[in-house]
Specification:
2 domains; mainly alpha; about 230 residues; about 65% helix; about 0% strand
Length: about 230
């Protein structure tokens, strides 16, 4: 399929009611409001296509950008590709899911995530913490830099309540992932969760709730590593 063919198909499956919901969840124009289930229909046809993914992402249409993440060949992504993607990930679903999925599956995810978490731009910092969340849920503990992760837990404890809104959300998700998926850091993550207490995030009037990190860690740990994070 070509970009024009896919864009026409996306437009034909757009929904104003879905758009209204997604706008409240931080998705930004332009986009058509396509259900993820239909994006997956296109994904099944295309499978994996590095060049097509880049071209779809470059449209700036949030539906196309989400689809780009589903079909991206993560291992072919360059540092320049990923930096371009994160800079343009202004919708919450792209910065907190699409870009982290692809970055975590790339050769450069960890180093870029460590850079991104300190970015002044809220969406880039959120993408960094989300990438680290995905990395710890995918990689065997033996492939993780455990001392560095322990240092990041201390950073979460120190800064989460002063961080930008979406950064607080993604820091909390990272904390839960470390506690659930990294066996040797479960106790450290629990201690951090208890130290920070309740995390408040403005969810723009939606029904979304911020998970209680300690509760979720106790409920999920030890969690089996994921085979993939894209969904």
């Amino acid at each position: 399929m070509t970009v024009p063919e896919i864009m026409a198909e996306l437009q034909s499956h757009g929904s104003e009611s879905i758009k209204k919901v997604l706008l409240k969840h931080g998705v930004k124009e332009p986009f058509f409001g396509v259900k993820i289930e239909h994006l997956k229909v296109i994904q099944k046809k295309v499978k994996t296509d590095y060049r097509l993914a880049l071209d779809l992402y470059a449209t700036g249409n949030a539906d196309a950008m989400y689809l780009a993440g589903l079909i991206a060949d993560d291992e072919k992504m360059t540092v320049a590709d990923l930096q371009t993607w994160v800079q343009n990930a202004v919708s919450n679903n792209i910065s907190e899911y699409t870009v982290p999925w692809v970055a975590a599956g790339s050769k450069y995810g960890y180093e870029l995530a460590m850079e991104w978490i300190n970015a002044p731009e809220e969406h880039i910092a959120a993408a960094g913490w989300s990438t680290l969340r995905d990395i710890v849920s995918l990689k065997p503990d033996g492939q993780l830099d455990v001392p560095a992760l322990k240092t990041l837990l201390a950073q979460v404890a120190k800064t989460i309540h002063h961080a930008d809104n979406r950064v607080r959300q993604t820091m909390n998700s990272f904390l839960i992932a470390v506690g659930a998926y990294v066996t040797v850091l479960k106790d450290d993550a629990l201690a951090t969760a208890k130290e920070i207490g309740t995390v408040t995030v403005n969810t723009n009037g939606t029904a979304c709730k911020v998970p209680d990190a300690a509760e979720y860690i106790l409920k999920r740990a030890p969690a089996k590593k994921k085979k993939m994070v894209k969904c």
